[in-house]
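Inverse folding, one chain.
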């Protein structure tokens, strides 16, 4: 007896099923429902019930055709931010860091709000600097922390940037910047001036500077008989040489505003930091500093200045919010430096010995200054 087999070449249509009803016709249209059980999603006119092997556009994982090849793309488009999937930042402090370390990086709880804010400040501090940038730190009144602010600002910028930073003591009255940073005052700006024509390299400059961490320090003349020799013309000569080899020049100006070197400091400054305190005398002197600058043609620099309030002396009788609001109305930003026992000693300054709020405040100051690095 001969067994008959069905003709497989004609049992199933080769193409899509017709509208005729037969055993091979498709079932109801809700066989491939949309997300809510309704009709299938619109895929640009393509039937999602078609065989994905015949037309990849019918694959449920298909998200549309690739972008048109317009020929406008370049290799510069393939940046890290564009092609790498976002990933949580690695925590570096607190219990989050402990969890990340113990789990070998498999558990990443992310960073805290404080660390996230700190990372934002660091990105601002590290912004690109196209050329030399000079920062003047000044105050009409002594004893409010001007030298401390100049020194720690220099340490902060040098610590978190990859370029060269130098701090210059332009105080004509035996300034203490080098004392607070390195303690080396044997070679000063006077010796550098005497040999300025021979300085043609960073190595030559290093003979006249000392090093605090990654910050270069140029001490002021300590002999009172020689201090008046440091005038505006000589200050400008020094800055012209420093600008050839350093990206950031921080000048700790002398107390007062009328001496010759201060004229050169203000004339060359790209950024201005005015230091005061949240006390009656400290705040009034800082505001009078701004008044003097406006009266002498520096109104634009005042509007773009950063005011620093050193809070080593505070009193509940002082309304600090009013003090802050006053300076915010006159300048670009206000930064409060909290009391810190390490700063209060008046001795050698070390970032690692300062409290976390103090370091954070100086990061904020550095970020405000760096905001003007792009010009």
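Residues assigned per position:
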């Amino acid at each position: 007896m001969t067994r008959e087999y069905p003709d497989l070449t004609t049992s199933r249509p080769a193409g899509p099923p017709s509208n005729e009803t037969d055993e091979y016709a498709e079932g109801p249209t809700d066989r491939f429902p949309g997300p809510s059980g309704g009709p299938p999603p619109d895929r640009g006119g393509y039937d999602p019930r078609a065989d994905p092997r015949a037309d990849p556009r019918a694959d449920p994982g298909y998200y549309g055709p690739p972008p048109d090849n317009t020929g406008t793309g370049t290799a510069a488009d393939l940046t890290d931010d564009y092609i790498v999937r976002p990933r949580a930042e690695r925590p570096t402090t607190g219990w989050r860091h402990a969890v990340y370390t113990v789990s070998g990086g498999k558990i990443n709880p992310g960073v805290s709000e404080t660390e996230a804010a700190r990372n934002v400040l660091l990105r601002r501090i590290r912004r690109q600097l196209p050329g030399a940038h000079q920062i003047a730190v000044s105050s009409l009144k002594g004893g409010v922390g001007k030298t401390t602010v100049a020194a720690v600002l220099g340490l902060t910028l040098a610590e978190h940037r990859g370029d060269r930073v130098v701090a210059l003591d332009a105080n004509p009255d035996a300034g203490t910047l080098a004392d607070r940073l390195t303690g080396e005052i044997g070679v000063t700006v006077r010796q550098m001036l005497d040999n300025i024509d021979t300085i043609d390299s960073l190595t030559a400059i290093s003979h006249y500077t000392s090093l605090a961490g990654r910050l270069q320090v140029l001490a002021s003349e300590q002999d009172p008989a020689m201090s008046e020799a440091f005038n505006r013309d000589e200050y400008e000569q020094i800055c012209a040489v420093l600008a050839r080899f350093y990206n950031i020049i921080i000048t700790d100006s002398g107390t007062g505003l009328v001496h010759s070197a201060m004229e050169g400091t203000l004339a060359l400054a790209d950024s201005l930091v005015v230091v005061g305190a949240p006390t009656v005398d400290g705040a009034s002197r800082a505001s009078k500093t701004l008044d003097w600058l406006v009266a002498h043609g520096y109104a634009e620099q005042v509007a773009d200045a950063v005011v620093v309030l050193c809070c080593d002396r505070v009193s509940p009788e002082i309304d600090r919010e009013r003090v802050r609001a006053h300076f915010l109305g006159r300048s670009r930003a206000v930064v409060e430096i909290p009391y810190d026992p390490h700063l209060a000693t008046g001795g050698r300054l070390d970032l690692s010995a300062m409290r976390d709020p103090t370091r954070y405040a100086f990061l904020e100051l550095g970020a405000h200054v760096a905001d003007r690095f792009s010009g």
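Residues 89 and 126 are 18 Å apart (CA to CA). DSSP finds 16 helices and eight strands in the chain.
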